[in-house]
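Complex record, two chains
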Amino acid sequence: SQQGEEDPQALSIQEGENATMNCSYKTSINNLQWYRQNSGRGLVHLILIRSNEREKHSGRLRVTLDTSKKSSSLLITASRAADTASYFCATDALEKGNTPLVFGKGTRLSVIA
Amino acid sequence: GAGVSQSPRYKVAKRGQDVALRCDPISGHVSLFWYQQALGQGPEFLTYFQNEAQLDKSGLPSDRFFAERPEGSVSTLKIQRTQQEDSAVYLCASSPLRTEKLFFGSGTQLSVL
C-alpha cells in the first residue's frame, strides 16, 4: 500500500515548546489531511490541505505542503499536556477512480508538564 | 445523531469463531469506510461503501472478511473463522463526501485467542 511515512516515530517535549512532525508520501495527491488519536480512541480530523495550497493554519496548528518534495509538516505551537497523542497524515491519491484515504504509521507525541 | 457508533467496543473470540462488528455512521453520510489498525501502526484500509454499493474491497486481507451495508446506513464487518493475526482494532469512518474529512468511531478492539 502507498502508505505515507511520518517522522519522527516518537517525540517527547516539554509543555510550552513547539512540536514539529513531518510526513512524506509517494504519489501525486488531491489533498493531505492530519488526524489525531488519543490512546484507545478513534481518530479525530485536525486539518485538510489541498494540493494547490502551501500553508494552512488552525488555532495552534500550522500545516505546510510541498508537492515537489511530496512532503508535509504539522507544527503545534505552545504545546500542552493535552496534546499528548498519536498524529497521522493521510493522503487522497490523484488517480482515476475511487482511491481510499491512506494513512501513515504516525508520530507519537508526548508533552511533559 | 451524535457521532459514528461502533459495537461492541471489545470482542474476545476463540480462534475459528465467527465475529460481526457493527458500525452506525453519522446520519446522511454517503461514504463509509472500514480500517484495521494493528498495535502501534496506522490504520490500514479494508473497504469502502458509497450508500449501499461496495465500491472498493481491495484491502480485505482474505475471503474470510466480508462487509455489507444493505440499506446504505448501518454497516457490518464479518470475519469468519478468526485467526490470531486478525487481532486488531477495527475502525469505521463516515463522510458526507468521499474525499473530505472522515469522522471515526471509537473502534472495536478484537482479540483472538
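Note: The radius of gyration of chain B is 13 Å.
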